[in-house]
# Entry
Amino acid sequence: MKEDTFKFGWTQETIFCINLTKLIDDKNITITKTDDQFCSVDFIIQYKNKRVMLELKSRRQNLSKYSDLFINTNKLHTIESQYKNIPTLLVWSDTFSNVYFTTYNEKLLQSPTQFSNGGCAFKINKKVCLETNELLVDTIKTMLFQ
# Structure
């Protein structure tokens, strides 16, 4: 079962990257999948000398049915320590075409925690998130072109 979950994640990352590249539609913006399997983010999005990091959480469940989204506590603490000065987006995407995202900030570390899928996870309230691919692209471009 775990092996299927890992394959699902890799497949979804590939699909997400292809779709995001098409939506951004700017040859000057590059999206690179991180090659270190232990990296705390999945993608580096770059325009000239500006970078945005992106962590993707792919889900099979319909995320629109839930009020909270989950991310492993260790992952968020690692993002805090490694990318504190680089804009980092946390993105949750499901197989129902729902997309929710938020920009990492220290307040997220104060979110409630819950044991989930064998580890401790932060419960991120969807009220702090934006949704839709279009808003995600607008947010990325704003971060890169500031």
The chain has three helices and nine strands. The first strand starts at residue 29 and ends at 33.
